[in-house]
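Q: My labmate handed me this sequence with no annotations at all. I'd like to see what the chain might look like in three dimensions before we decide whether it's worth expressing. Could you predict it?
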Amino acid sequence: MKTFSPTPKDIQHEWFVVDAADKVLGRLASQIAHRLRGKHKPEYAPHMDNGDYIIVVNCAKIQVTGTKMHDKKYYRHSGWVGGLKTTPLEDMMAKKPTFALMNAVRGMLPKTKLGRAMLKKLKVYAGSEHPHSAQQPKPLTLPY
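A: Here is what I predict for the chain of 144 residues:
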């Protein structure tokens, strides 16, 4: 018996909508990354992008556990001496509510061209509206 290796014509991408209101950031990000890679499908292959498109709405209402809202920090550096900038999660959620989820999912995907292609299939919106109704996305309920 030969091992099945999917080809681009074998891959079916579906569209799903996830409501992030009152979901925990890390748990939601891990389940989204799992779906973007396509690991939930029986024809999964690590060298192919056979995951689904995921639309996340209500990202501004996402939750974190413990004191992460005050303690978790995002870092960036200008490249100059003393150029390290820190931003707490609560300030980041006020300025860019979609950044925290996108950053968490990005860290869970491969750091290659394939991972960047998978991340392009993630659409995140702060409110409850999205412009992808033409794709007829199905609602996706995640276990936790």
